[in-house]
């Protein structure tokens, strides 16, 4: 009606011009009350239909004023933000909830909280306890539809405010939900309590859910035996959610539920009205199997898979909800059974490949036609130039699900997936440019490295096959990255490309120098695009006078770009490690597009002190990789980069300090004379400041300190000329070891330590008097039986321990052992056996 159109105009205005609407003094104060008032306009003539309905998702075919008001609240909160919306909404909602004479008001107030939660998340979060209490009080409301609305409100908050709400309010929420499951006079209230349990479990840990499982599952077992389909469906999904949250803690209940669920699957086969229930049972069985593990589930897996395969074999209608659940169940069972799932692939893969390969239903319209901004139900439109592309969404979702399932199979089954690699690659690679669905592109990208790993797992004989697959896949991945419009998908693609480089290996990629060069050019372009996006946000903020909501939105976009920078840095590390000196010309050359600087220039600019910490950190890491892997050309950067590493070793940002300290160690190890020419002795002071800081072992600082200690060790081994007082440095190092925070660098540093001891380094051992022997033996004891050394390093440590005990004077060993703890002495003695 006219009122709905008027409200739609106001809401659309808020979505298109949020800043202007927030600044307009009376906009929010005028629109929110209208939306809330329309939520009072329930059609009470259809009251009995509500109680009899077996579907919570679609209460009415007609779009009512109530629906318009409810939807508008959600959209207004998201568009305008909580600072603008919540004060106005919370000025009215408590009055609605306190209206004891009108259940319609209480119903509207509770649903209003549900609707504004997502958009007002930050503001409600500060008063979450009071809002939860407000909703839980209405679980005992005299009117069943208010109880339903209260449950709905709590369930939605479990989604919007997880995992905090689960962690802090489980003692109030779960007992209340368990209580309303006894509301047998009103099955819709009962079933909605089960639905809220599903929401709660999405962010619940095993520790939170386990104490309630006996009571919860007993209630749900009763609900499963209800004669109302809505109750059965929600109960079975709640059992699935509990199993998923509880993980292995669900095992004691497996024998109670699995026979019942298998029976439902068997007796409901072919019954049209039970298709969705049957799909939910598939979901439940597969989640239980994944939770309890292969050993427990394998006793039923064959029978379950037989039922699922027969279901698929009978053919499913296009609108059959079982299709979605079936694909998801296959993926979970695959993750559970691992290689035991391989025999089922011939039955499963043809249907999945067909579903994933479906062409979307597309309609092309002129963007200027009447009604161009209206979307048909079940259709999504995107504008490309002067055209509108309409796409049927149901088909897209099915396609995306199938693509995701296949990607799961490849990741889980490894070489067992080999017979399907070719057909899957032919499907996935074109989907990298499937611009109608972000998830399809992301899943296709994630699948690519797993396909390469699958082929490479055959061993050296597969080199030609790997090269063939890379030749087919890699250029399209680069093209897709260069043209990807969505930063979140771009992050996935760049990460996948790095994994492809690692999976392909040096032997293959070093034969394909043109791909390495093009990789550098594409990375240079997307980094330039990143800079332009950042500059555009800054310019818009200045020109438009952004308010706080817009600044927060821009901050989120900036975080996505920061993650992209991290992934680009990781990819360049892989390209340098695999390509070696071959990659250096590409690293130093300008991009293919005019105005795109070479990567080396982009990262050199990021080393400037005025740049953000994350950019300086990534740039330090990249130049460290250049020096370590770039051959003579890479070593040439030492004299230019070491001063920056020295400066940033004491940076305010702990991550920057860590990267700088790691870089100093890499330069000490690899740069030889260039390290001396670059003033290597000057790094001792900042490294000393890091390791002597009062809070150097704190959670925030430990990784930076670990890397500073590792750098000092590398200087003792590789650059002794730059360590005038080796005894003082060794004393600092020995007092700190072993490194425990950065496990990767710990193994490297402890290997250096062992080499210094093996060669009898006087500063480490403490001169002729062996003054440091007690510390050396203590470090040995604390390394034994840990993951702080490689397997080879651990063998060397055991041998070195025996050597020291047998070759050094007995009185020195005894004196050193005397100051060790009993635990340390016991570990050393056991290692001598």
How would you characterize this protein structure?
The structure is a single chain. The protein is 71% helix and 2% strand. It is built from 44 helices and 3 strands. Strand 2 and strand 3 (387-392) form a beta hairpin. Helix 5 (65-80) runs parallel beside helix 7 (103-116) and helix 10 runs antiparallel to helix 11. The longest helix is centred in the middle third of the chain and has 32 residues, at 513-544. The N and C termini lie far apart (89 Å). The model has no long low-confidence stretch (mean pLDDT 90).
Structural class: mainly alpha
**End-to-end distance:** 89 Å
| Gross geometry | globular
Helix content: over 70%
> What characterizes the major β-sheet?
3 strands, antiparallel
Radius of gyration: 32 Å
* Total of DSSP H or I helical runs spanning 4+ residues: 44
Number of strands: 3
Low-confidence region ranges: none
Strand content: under 5%
Q: Averaging pLDDT over every residue, what do you get?
A: 90
- Strand order in the sheet with the most strands: 1-3-2
Task: Describe this protein with a few key phrases.
833 residues, 44 helices, 3 strands, 71% helix, globular
Can you describe this structure in just a few lines?
The chain is mainly α.
